[in-house]
Each structure stands twice: as C-alpha cells, then as structure tokens.
Amino acid sequence: LEAIKRSHEQQLKEETEQMREDLLKKLQNGDHESFYCKYRNDLENLKTEILEITEKYSAKCLENISLEEKVNSLRHQLEEAHNEVGVEVQ
Question: Are 74 and 10 in contact (CB under 8 A)?
Fold first, then answer.
C-alpha cells in the first residue's frame, strides 16, 4: 500500500512539475507577477483538490485491502466448513 501511495505521489509530483515547466516556458515573455496574482486562487484550489483526491485514493486503497482480507477470511471459513461437512458425511 505504501508503495502504491508513493508511486501515486511521485506521479503527481512529476505531472505537477511538467505543468509548471510548460507554464513557465509560455510565460517567459509575459508579466509573471500579474499572471500569478490572477490565477493564484485557482492554483491553490487545484492544489487542495489534488491533496484531497490523493487522500481519498489512499483511503480507498486501505478499504480495498481490508475487504480483500475479509473475503479471504470468509473463503477460508467456507473451505473449513466444507471440509467438516465432508468428514462428517463420510
């Protein structure tokens, strides 16, 4: 799970860096300060949204692992019950 989370965070970091580099290239001839002021709130909102999505993704990964463990436990119990019934019938 940690490996998945780290991989996801690394991927987000790489994509964010690529977007930042592309944006800087486009703005090299423009007024950086006015652009930043104009879009600062949007950038902060996007950052917050990315963090929220990352946390939800991690929570879903944990939930998935928990459900897989429950399914495996129930499958094991079912196999044991089948074995007991099979032994009693014979």
Answer: no
For 88, the token pair is 């009693």
Contact between residue 81 and residue 35 where contact means Cβ atoms under 8 Å apart: no
* Residue 30 main-chain phi, psi, to 5 deg: -105, -175
Task: Tell me if 63 sits within 8 A of 1, measured CB to CB.
Answer: no
Digit-coded pLDDT (tens) for 28-84: 766 666 667 777 888 888 899 999 999 999 999 999 999 999 999 999 999 999 998
Buried b (16+ CB within 10 A) or exposed e, 40-60: eeeeeeeeeeeeeeeeeebee
Domain segments of the chain: what residues?
A: 1-88
SS3 29: coil
pLDDT in tens, 1-22: 778 888 888 888 888 888 888 7
